[in-house]
Design a protein that fits this description.
Elements lengths: L1 E7 L7 H7 L6 H11 L7 E8 L6 E5 L4 H9 L13 E3 L1 H11 L8 H11 L5 E3 L4 H9 L4 H5 L7 H54 L1
Parallel strand pairs: 4-5
Antiparallel strand pairs: 1-2, 2-3
Length: 217
């Protein structure tokens, strides 16, 4: 019997669903959770897939810890606790070298025909968690990869980033972040102006209705 779990590395906790699954089998839940945490401790702070293979007759079990999802590896690479809940908000800037590093780690788990496709999968995963790649939107970088840009880095699987590039990535991120914040302030101002306009219309409407009611009297 195999049970699939998604736990925080090194910090799995027993829950009602797991208790209901394992209780009838006579499995020591505390021992199992302890073993899961021991096996996954290298992935602390990340969500990691775990497969527990249980022999229902002997009560023995084996634990297989799989590599974390791409999004978790991206957050780890950038030192982020979480991604953005809104993709319009940007919380980091990934270098192509970092995407290559993650692709090397995850390629075996991906259904891809080439390493280039694995890198594109990593870049695409940045979209939903608000991560820029090389200072651009991920879809733009995928277009660049398709057009042959970054070919040398991808073919040679380059993962090292120079201090100069790290500085450039930070500058790119700060620039885009400032633009987004400016747009947000403009949108908020426009929304506030629209609310004021609505209030004014309602006031005029109410005054007109009151004047009409006096005429009818």
């Amino acid at each position: 019997m195999k049970i699939k779990l998604l736990v925080e590395g090194g910090n799995a906790k027993p829950g009602p669903a797991l208790s209901q699954q394992l209780g009838p089998l006579g499995i020591n839940l505390g021992k199992l959770i302890g073993e899961v945490n021991k096996a996954s401790e290298n992935y602390k702070g990340m969500k990691v897939p775990v497969i527990v293979d249980i022999d229902t007759e002997t009560k023995a079990f084996k634990i297989l810890v799989k590599k974390p999802p791409v999004a978790e590896l991206i957050k780890k690479e950038l030192g982020l606790d979480k991604g953005a809940s809104d993709a319009k908000i940007k919380v980091g800037n990934l270098a192509i070298e970092q995407a290559i590093k993650i692709a090397k780690e995850k390629q075996d788990d991906m259904i891809v025909n080439s390493f280039k496709e694995a890198v594109k999968n990593v870049v695409a995963a940045c979209t939903s968690i608000g991560i820029l790649v090389e200072g651009k939107e991920p879809k733009e970088v995928i277009r660049q990869i398709n057009n042959g840009e970054f070919r040398t880095a991808i073919e040679n699987q380059v993962t090292k980033i120079s201090p100069e590039k790290k500085k450039l990535l930070q500058e790119q991120f700060e620039k885009v972040k400032a633009i987004i914040e400016k747009k947000k302030k403009i949108e908020e101002a426009e929304k506030a102006a629209e609310e004021v306009k609505k209030e004014k219309v309602e006031e005029v409407k109410e005054e007109t209705e009151q004047a009409l009611s006096l005429i009818h009297i």
